[in-house]
Specification:
Elements (H helix, E strand, L loop, with lengths): L8 H4 L3 H6 L5 H15 L6 E5 L5 H8 L3 E6 L2 H7 L7 E5 L11 E6 L10 H14 E12 L1 H6 L4 E6 L2 E10 L2 E10 L2 E10 L3 H11 L1 E7 L14 E8 L2
Parallel strand pairs: 1-2, 1-4, 2-3, 4-5
Antiparallel strand pairs: 5-11, 6-7, 7-8, 8-9, 10-11
Helix pairs in contact: 3-4, 6-8
Length: 247
């Protein structure tokens, strides 16, 4: 099969195999996180939120259940088609590239969850994306970013594993290559050999602070997991930023 070398996600996220491999991602973990964030930020009914990289909408749906007027965007047409079945007056989904602004000075909250950042080969695109987040927020609006803790991932990197899901044997290998954590996914289906690649930039706390500073965003709090326990750079599973637009 053909492969998009520069933007791997355009093909992989639209593949049915992506959702087979990651079908274990359910609402339970997402619900815990969203309820904790709602309590922390004291959501008010009708506040506007943008869920960037919304996937099939699990976080957007839960945010909406907390009273927010939510718009979910994703680059995957397949994801948006699926999420749109849950659409209603205060819950909308549409296809869009996160590097480009949806609507300026419009949202009380921008959410970028479950490592939906750092996909781009060019570092300037990360700055462009963060700048878009800032422009989308109202003055004083809150940005919530949930990213993997790269230091912990690299320290415990599982280089090879296999997963049998729905009769498909996924052979997964991982490596650190230059500034990225790269995951290679190989399998056979209906007699055809298929392979995909995931490639996420290694972004640590100090890197995010550079992006924030560039975009005019200040960090309020940093957490290390979905229980919102304190962040530890070596031990935490996640790095979760609560940040504010400066003006």
């Amino acid at each position: 099969m053909s492969e998009n070398k520069t933007e791997w996600f355009s093909e992989w996220f639209n593949s049915p195999y992506y959702h087979i491999l990651y079908k274990h991602r359910d609402f339970i973990e997402a619900e815990l996180f969203i309820k904790n964030i709602s309590s922390l930020l004291s959501f008010k009914s009708g506040q506007k939120a943008l869920d960037v990289g919304c996937g099939r909408g699990r976080h957007a749906i839960l945010l909406n259940q907390q009273g927010l007027d939510v718009t979910g965007i994703d680059i995957s047409q397949e994801n948006i088609q699926y999420a749109s079945r849950f659409q209603k007056a205060d819950l909308k989904f549409f296809e869009k590239d996160m590097r480009f602004v949806v609507e300026e000075n419009h949202y009380d909250y921008v959410f970028n969850l479950f490592t939906s950042f750092g996909y781009f080969d060019q570092e300037e695109h990360n700055y462009q994306t963060m700048s878009a987040f800032a422009k989308e927020l109202k003055s004083g609006g809150k940005l919530v970013i949930d990213f993997m803790n790269c230091r912990r991932i690299i320290e415990g990197l599982i280089k090879q594993e296999e997963k049998l899901i729905d009769g498909i044997l996924f052979k997964i290998s991982r490596k650190v290559e230059e500034s990225f954590i790269v995951k290679m996914i190989e399998f056979e289906d209906k007699g055809k050999k298929i392979n995909y690649e995931e490639k996420v930039r290694i972004i640590n706390e100090e890197d995010f602070l550079k992006y924030f500073n560039f975009a005019g965003i200040s960090v309020d709090k940093i957490f290390g997991n979905y229980n919102l326990d304190p962040y530890n750079s070596l031990k935490s599973e996640r790095i979760i930023f609560i940040a504010s637009k400066n003006n």
